[in-house]
Amino acid sequence: MLTLNLPPEITQYLTERAIAQGLSTEDYTIQVLRERLPLPEKSQQLIDLLQSWIDEPDDAEQRSTGEYLIQALDEDRTSDRLLFPAELKGISW
Question: Lower CB density within 10 Å: C or N end of the chain?
Fold first, then answer.
């Protein structure tokens, strides 16, 4: 367990954002931290994925891996804006 003594303006901001999303301040704060902090297992998954491209030059698998990588990069963003929106596939990526 971790207890933080945050300045009042940060506490107020977190509380307002939490209410806007229908979450408790604690749940919202945890969500923000999870979105902003790199988790070692996600990093290792991406490293393993890239290494598999190098080790196994299989076109079908590379396509599948590429799709997974695109999905992982879009999910791991701090913004709701996608890097690879489906409607732009074949146009900009």
Answer: N
